[in-house]
From TrEMBL:
Protein name, per record: Calcium homeostasis modulator family member 6
Cell location: Membrane
Gene name linked to the record: CALHM6
Molecular function GO labels: monoatomic cation channel activity; voltage-gated channel activity
Keyword Ion transport belongs to the record: yes
């Protein structure tokens, strides 16, 4: 039991890193399965380019879109934004644009992994490049017609020595591009993370405390919401079968739900750890927790919006 608790604590502590690692492994494994069992290059000058690019890029686009769909911040941002009577100020639009940029960065992990692994494997690139007229002029000097005719057959492991040499050259190009892409991703990620941490308005230990608070708040919120919904459901079902009037049952108003579901903004004058914290603290002061002067979206605090009562809501 103690070992299970230790594993659970490790999962909670490194949940994001484990999640990205799992996505990377699944993406790499999926690419290997596609390249060995599904992909069959037509070895045709007409179809090689389009066929190879479809397998290289279309799964990456699908994974990119899934990255949006499976992120709770996407639905926090979109839910109710086009409802009648909703007004968006310029400041709100800027905040939404910044959140969209952050979402795009997180959603790009899986597609970039797919492209990098595919380039290292070389199968998709070989097929696509062998049907490119630009590479024909590069790989076949002086417009050698025999070389141009042999190039589309390269992915089919042509037995001719010239075909084997062309295949090795295409494989080398693909792998070089793959390593360049991996290096670029790591460098950009390192720079981006360093800049975000440097611009963080809170210290390292307070950031740790903040994440612990959010985990506890969401666990308690889910538990209380479940109990509250259970009591309300029981009362309504009981009244339905007994033809009686329900007892007075207090639930948060629609406005309250909207306010705690809005995008989080940081204000150094009044520091709150979540929108729920801000709502509870500001309820006695005013009837709204709308953005005030000084409220900004801080990329280092993007994890505040990433949590929800039930993260599986994104599948609805």
């Amino acid at each position: 039991m103690e070992k299970f608790q230790a594993v659970l604590d490790l999962h909670l502590k490194h949940r994001n890193a484990l999640g990205y690692g799992l996505v990377t492994l699944l993406t790499a494994g999926g690419e290997r399965i596609f390249s060995t069992t599904v992909f069959q290059c037509p070895c045709s000058a007409t179809w090689n380019l389009s066929y190879g690019l479809v397998f290289l890029l279309v799964p990456a686009i699908v994974l990119f879109l899934l990255g949006y769909v499976l992120n709770a911040r996407t639905w926090r941002l979109l839910t109710g934004c086009c409802a009648p009577g909703t007004r968006s100020s310029c400041g709100s639009c800027r905040r939404r644009a910044l959140v969209c940029a952050q979402l795009s960065g997180m959603a790009a992990v899986a597609p970039l992994t797919w492209v990098a692994v595919a380039l290292l494997g070389g199968t998709f690139y070989e097929c696509a490049a062998s049907g490119s007229n630009i590479l024909v002029r590069y790989l076949c000097p002086a417009g050698d017609p025999a070389c141009a005719a042999q190039l589309p057959l390269v992915p089919c492991k042509a037995s001719a020595p010239e075909g084997q040499d062309l295949r090795k050259e295409l494989r080398a190009q693909s792998q070089v591009l793959g390593w360049i892409l991996i290096a670029a991703i790591i460098i950009i990620l390192l720079i981006f993370t360093s800049v975000i941490r440097c611009l963080s308005p809170v210290s390292f230990l307070q950031l740790k405390f903040w994440k612990i608070y959010l985990e506890q708040e969401q666990q308690i919120l889910k538990k209380e919401a479940t109990e509250h919904a259970n009591k309300l459901a029981k009362e309504n079902v009981k009244c339905f079968f007994e033809f009686s009037h329900p007892e007075e049952f207090k639930t948060p108003s629609m406005k309250a739900w909207q306010q705690i579901s809005s995008l989080y903004t940081f204000n150094p004058k009044e520091q709150y750890y979540s929108m729920l914290h801000k709502y509870v603290s500001s309820k006695e002061k005013s009837d709204s927790i709308r953005s005030a002067s000084g409220d900004t979206v801080i990329p280092a605090l993007g994890f505040v919006d990433a949590s929800g009562i039930i993260t599986a809501d994104v599948t609805l």
